[in-house]
Design goal:
mainly alpha; two-stranded antiparallel sheet; 3 helices; 2 strands
Length: 64
Amino acid sequence: MKDWLKNLLKSEKGEAIIGNMAYFYLKFVGLTTRWQVSGVKETYELLDKYGSMIVIGWHGRTLE
């Protein structure tokens, strides 16, 4: 990598640029993400029966 780019990335200005880019990317992703909720009734039934549960997810997919 070029020295000027390394220096920029290590500087406060470079950190600010990367931070702002990450912020706007995550904001965009949040605004364009569609949430789908299913199994609410079943979830409450399991909570009533067992009192607690562990929910595991992996990259947007819930393991059932």
